[in-house]
Amino acid sequence: MDAMLKASNTMVNIDDLNRVAGKVVAKYTGAEAGLVTSGAAGGLVLQAAAVIAGKDPAKMKKLPNTEGMKNEIIIHKSHRFPYDQCYLSVGAKFVEIGDGRRCNQWELESAFTNQTAAVAYLFSPFITRRALPFRDVCEIAHQRDVPVIVDAASYTPPRANLTRFISEGADMVIYSKKKGVRGPQGTGILCGRADLIEAAYANASPHQFIGRGMKVAKEEIIGLVKALEIFVNEDEGLENQEYRRMSERAVDALIEIPGISAEVVHDEYDYLIPMALITFKENWEGKSRDEIWNLMIEEDPPIYLSDLGDPDTLAIDPFNLTELELEIVIERMHKIMTST
To answer: For the whole prediction, is pTM greater than 0.90?
Structure first.
């Protein structure tokens, strides 16, 4: 907040600020270049603009009319999700591969045409792990000089993921910075190949092209850079120890309720920090999972449990909880789950 306050009282050249901020992003992601974006969604728009129009002003001015341009983005059917509309908003057309459950290598190989602009790949909790392995996708795409663009918006922490996807072959990666990094609410970071980041910025604010409306204020850019520096230097081991202790406290308070199981979960795919997972078993006789979720948000303050997992589970995510807030969560959840 101090950094953002100081920035609010300083006049800067926004191009110069973006270049300097981009160097910080590149440093911490291991990429050739970086850019602060208007959230992860804004970054997805710029990914698509960069691979379709590049930095050719004649093409950039036509967007979202992509007639005469390479405009096809190959994507696993199992990687379709609400935010992929950001790609379509630029004028991209999806070529889906796989059947929603699995995908064969030949399906990717046969999807390339002379209109292919990129291959999109999603890293997110609770999606299938039956998609083609990421390294293989990169290898197949690069053999055809096609870039791979990645949405990893919700995949930090762990901090290792900041550099993982670039090192495994991604050409551009977007991260949300309002989530795990705790940066300004409206920011994200885009990192990748220097030529593609240059093209993304050419399409972005303050330039008068398709990304003009997705402005990032100088205060947000400075705040994001400071938050990123803090994030990468924090002790993740100690952090996870604290999250585990808080999750264990929740498990201990709820595990005796008949008809449920409660455990601390932590893995590299779905539960990226330790969380308390509540599973409603076959002999559960209380309110439904969804009823409990709704009742938790109806009181003051509203409490939002994680309902992204299996339909018979709810999770308590300690990431942004204080000790007092955790106590409120536990007490309300226990009251709702034990009331008739």
So the answer is: yes
